[in-house]
Specification:
Blueprint: H1 8-33, H2 49-56, E1 63-65, H3 71-76, H4 81-88, H5 122-136, E2 142-147, H6 154-165, E3 170-176, E4 179-180, E5 183-184, H7 185-188, E6 205-209, H8 213-228, E7 234-239, H9 257-264, H10 268-278, H11 284-307
Parallel strand pairs: 1-2, 2-3, 3-7, 6-7
Antiparallel strand pairs: 4-5
Helix pairs in contact: 1-10, 1-11, 2-8, 4-11, 5-6
Length: 324
């Protein structure tokens, strides 16, 4: 784990990850609009600093659980862009052979224990994985991603309480993008910050600017060190914002154009670029090179995924099991 401002290679890598998330989701948005991708999807454009900073503080053997808005988590943890694109295009070469789509990508090889279409569904899974690592004596930490809507689900309270009691190696990462579907956090919580809820479980709660990749990394690094040393979980709240609607069917009637534009002015990628160029860590040419490389990678991912064979409906039930 290297600080994103400590050397040029790490800064370049963090910037590339954020651009990969942004460009992947823009490509997906375009494919969906043109009728080339089906189902639904939940985009995280505008939130790229959160998964990037969190996963930068994790080791290769550490794990994550994800959400229905999970493309960024997958990419930040090292997923292959072509296999991800193939999954969303219902191709046999996708991570789940084209059967899971946008909300169910898993990549155990890189430590991604799976996205989840159920709000708060990944929180008990992360706690269970952390318990398993503890019982096996493995030096592994789990980063559990969820949104602000999940903190009012029973699964959140039960899993977080258990993790705190047993001091499990898990970091609960709330990506607070201000709205649970269309319901604002101001109306859904009596406390000011999601992190304030941590006090009820006897664990640290930290609120950071989720559009600042450095702030996210530094807070996550502290939380991971705590979890790894046996001191238990942390609730990390990354305050951020999604530029797009909740899902493809969202008409955005509950928020103003001015509000969206205000948050677009806090673009996490632009902020990080300005910071690393201003400090002399990277040059304008370095930044342009990262953008160009990512653009080429995404073009290749779309092309190769489109050329892959479609998933075969005839073997759809091959992996479905039932007990008598």
């Amino acid at each position: 784990m290297t600080h994103p401002l400590s050397d040029a290679a790490t800064a370049r890598g963090a910037l590339a990850t954020m651009w990969e998330i942004r460009r992947f989701e823009e490509a997906v948005d375009d494919l969906f609009a043109r009728g080339l991708m089906h189902g639904t999807m939940h985009l995280s454009i505008g939130q790229e600093a959160s998964p990037t900073g969190v996963c930068l503080a994790l080791g290769e053997n550490d794990a994550i659980t994800s959400t229905h808005r999970g493309h960024g988590h997958c990419i930040a943890k090292g997923a292959d862009l072509t296999r991800m694109m193939a999954e969303l295009l219902a191709k046999e070469t996708g991570y789940c052979r084209g059967r899971g789509g946008s909300m169910h990508i898993a990549d155990v090889a890189t430590g991604n224990l799976g996205a989840n279409g159920i709000v708060a569904g990944g929180i008990p899974i992360a706690t269970g994985a952390a318990l398993a690592y503890r019982l096996r004596g493995e030096d592994r930490v789990v980063a559990c991603f969820f949104g602000d809507g999940a903190v009012n689900e029973g699964a959140f309270h039960e899993a977080v309480n258990l993790a705190a009691i047993w001091q499990l190696p898990v970091v609960f990462v709330c990506e607070n993008n201000k709205y649970g579907m269309s319901f604002s956090t101001e109306k859904s919580m009596a406390v000011e910050n999601v992190a304030d809820k941590a006090a009820g479980y006897g664990m640290p709660g930290v609120t950071v600017d989720g559009n600042d990749v450095v702030a996210v990394y530094e807070a996550m690094e502290t939380a991971v060190a705590r979890a790894r040393s046996g001191e238990g979980p942390t609730l990390l709240e990354n305050v951020t914002y999604r530029w797009k609607g909740h899902s493809k069917s969202d008409k955005n009637l509950y928020r103003t154009r001015e509000e969206i534009a205000s948050w677009q002015g806090r673009d996490p990628i632009a902020r990080f670029e300005a910071r690393v160029v201003g400090s002399g860590l990277l040059t304008e040419d370095d930044v342009a090179g990262v953008r160009d490389h990512v653009a080429q990678s995404l073009r290749s991912a779309v092309r190769d995924a489109n050329a892959a064979p479609d998933a075969d409906p005839s073997d759809l039930l091959d992996s479905v099991y039932a007990s008598a």
